[in-house]
Amino acid sequence: MTTRRTTTRITVDSARGVFMISIAAELAEMHPQTLRMYEQRGLIQPQRSPKGTRLYSQSDVDRLRRIQEMTTELGLNLAGVERVLALEEQLEATRRRLEQLEQQSSDVRAEMEAELEVARRTLRGELVPISRSSTDMVRASDVRARRRA
User: Fold this and answer.
1) 22 with 13: CB under 8 angstroms?
2) In sequence order, what are the residues at sequence separation of 6 or more whose Cβ sits closer than 8 angstroms to the Cβ of residue 22?
3) What is the pTM of this model?
4) Distance of alpha carbon 106 from alpha carbon 96, whole angstroms
5) What is the pLDDT of residues 14-34, one digit of tens each?
6) Whole-number Å distance between alpha carbons of 61 and 67
7) Which domains are delineated in the chain?
8) CA-to-CA distance for 125 and 122, rounded, in angstroms?
9) Treating both helix axes as pointing N-terminal to C-terminal, what angle do 58-72 and 21-28 enclose, rounded to 10 degrees?
């Protein structure tokens, strides 16, 4: 008789708090007290279990590693780390806002082009561009009137 071995994979959201402080500290290669200090400074914000136990997510562990990299390899102090993280958050917010504005611009442009197409069909070729390089339109009769004058 052969036994069949099955493997079950569990996927956990990287933002879900699943590691207790001792495991998170080990994964980030730092002392648990360092994690507590970073929490006091606002550098990290672990989730809490119903009983108040700190629960760190994979994202938290990644952030702890990044903080450690900035302090050890780049020589930043914690004030510098705080500033870098704040600037990165600001940059990300600006990037998201730019994407929103680009989408709005694209939507408005598509709407304008659709309205222009309706106007062209309605006026049956009576609209012409002001110049070859322009997208601005005028009535053909207005152009003829200017040429006569």
Assistant:
1) no
2) 32
3) 0.63
4) 15
5) 888 889 999 999 999 999 999
6) 10
7) 21-75 (1.10.1660.10), 105-148 (no CATH)
8) 8
9) 40
